[in-house]
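hi! just following up on the protien thing from before. the input was this:
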Amino acid sequence: MDIDEQGQPGENCMSPLIKYLRDEIMPTEKKEVQQLQRRAAEYVEAVNKIIKRTLKTRLEKLKGLWAEELPNALWAYRTTSCTSTKETPFSLSFGSKAMVPVEIGLPSPRVEQIRLPNNNESVQLSLDLLEEHRETARLRTAEYKNRIARYYNSKVKKRDFKEGDLVLRKIMPNTKDSTSGAFRPTWEGPYKVTKVVRTGTYALEDQQGKALLHPWHAQHLKRYYH
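and the predicted 3d structure came back as:
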């Protein structure tokens, strides 16, 4: 992804990541380096998923031609509006909408109406407002994440327990019996809640009164009825 320096008067939360991706400049603190590398890996992985999905759609059964189709997939990604930002990666990099190749051979109304002096001023203004443009996109992304969280929370069934309640615990990969086979139960117990460690997290003990080593979150517990 191309990253344009113009229109960036100051530092922001994305500046270290941009410097790392563009210039391979690392922070001095080891912890910051690890955080930066993790963020960069997550960003690259997210983009790669989109590109792979686009390639699969375009190639269908002709998987061996992915290298020839890659530029088209990248162009499609860079010029398609994101749901969260409502902007294209291209516009967030350069401050203007991309011109599709067909507009060069067959001028569109947008191209025909361009007047060079006015266009230069318009481009410069877009670059001057680029950081503000990006900040608006960041705010939209934050609001989008909040909407997703609110929707998710509205669908989650809250589970509250108190001391003395009996609960079943979900069998996790690290707690399952390897000899139980494919038809093993999903839940085990009952266990007794001995303490509310914090909201949604509980200390448990088994039927013999032996405390479990770690507290368990409510999403892995359900009430035991007897």
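The longest strand covers residues 187-198.
Helices lie at 15-23, 30-59, 66-78, 89-94, 102-105, 109-112, 116-128, 130-155.
cheers
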